[in-house]
Give the backbone structure.
Amino acid sequence: MADQQEEEDLRMALRMSMQNSPPEPKRSKPRDTAILPAAKTPEESRQLQRELMAAAAEKRMLAAAKAAPPSSSQSKNERSGDFEMKEAEKKAKEVNLGNELSDKEAHQLFAMVFGTGVSKDILAQWSNQGIRFSPDPETSMGLVQHEGGPCGVLATIQAFVLKHLLFFPDELGKVAANMPQNLNSRRSKSQYVASNNFSAFTEDAKARALVKSMSEMLFLCGNNKRAVIATLSVISHGIEGSEGSSKDVIIAQALEGLSIESASDLQKVLRVDRYTSPTSAFKRLEAMIPIFQSRMGALLFLISALLSRGLDCVQADRDDPSQPLVTAPFGHASQEIVNLLLCGQAVPNVFDGRMDLGGGMFLKGIFTSVEVGFLTLLESLNFCKVGQNLKCPKWPIWVVGSESHYTVLFALDTAVQDENELEERESQIRKAFDAQDQSGGGGFISVEAFHQVLRETSIRLRSEKLDSLCNSGFIVWSEFWQVILDLDKNLGGLKDSTGQMGRKIFDLYHFNGIAKSDLNGSQATTEGSESSQKDAEVAKPEQPPQHAPLADCIRTRWPRAVCNWIGDPPSIV
């Protein structure tokens, strides 16, 4: 009731301010407010809006006192007063102050990301990495990493940016009204080959691809229902209305001396806005893109993704929520961060579905297909098993993980994911084996499970070969796979006496965002797969195979791949 009465009083003051007999002002001194301080709570935000309107009323009342109009024009002034009151209300509503996190939310968020004993070096890494494109003309479509740590965030954004630049170039100039539809759409069932003229992308096209990617990823984290955009109170309002280099100057001045070393620091400077409309979120991101390009950009986007998912949901996604998402001692982005940005859930594993450990315990993996995928060197070392959801994304783009870094691998031709008869048979056998693998990606199953795999895949082994495989009490995938390659097709195997069965040659491109190596790539041809390098000619298939850690990653997706490149080997570290 008190709020209603106050609003009514305010409206009456605004009306009477346009009449010739002004009442005594509500405030003894007009309040000149050019830039509003950030409201600490929604209630204080409303109070601030009321004060703004009251100040405008006071100014008009003082002007009316100096030159009161004749009584004959009273009705006209009354109508003018109604109009100006609505204008004042409209302008007050347009002031986007953002919302401050509660003390509990700020402490939960900071502990979730960094833990309790985070070093200043790690905090500095995550507070000094913007989301900016490379200045080099031939890698200008790539985001540059200057600090160690946030590469997991940058690489996943890079993968989505490439999706929009390569496969949806005609959509970049359109308003993002129906953007979430892209999450579940393909351009076409037919083959599509993107251009390899990376230097042809305009700055405007790259900027819109970045904004579309960020919006798509945040709504993905928000279950396609919401997106939360985190910005900084010290600069989020000062840049609105500014243009060009003046924005960079405003941001640089505002960030001078700013550091985030605790939850209370985070609470003081962080402001969040929640959106259910993709168009509104797109416009807000577009306006705030200079902030995400600033040194706080990578951290702000990670926070936006976590809040879009919901802090409690993030913790429920994880197998061990007691550990920080940014891992010590080097401050790397965890697999949970990468998975959150790729599939919308902060699960810690890369296999499909979930793994039942018995006794009511299970491990969570990837439950849905994804737009862009993931490969890792750790799979080639038998430390984990990447499932088909991440290996076979909707678009031929993969974040590539090594022991300490994330990079991006991509193809221009969607046909690289098409499976021929041989590859379909490979996938069928591997899927049956993985379904029985309860080792957490170790690549071995029990004898009983092995017999189930043989039945499901119609593989008939001679008794001596079967006894040899089962001798140790468990069957290792690598040994089983070699047996399959030597087994005749009429017995369910994949023996190829010609060496040409299922052979195909295609190109993949690799981008490493670290500033010192973003020019390092390699273009390599493989029989079944390849990695790429800038300015390199396609290698001839007759060349002997070459080896690099990236080639090992590629073979986790195309097991029989033979890779070649010209120049230095592509680096994934």
Observations:
- The CA atoms of residues 381 and 552 lie 9 Å apart.
- The mean pLDDT is 79.
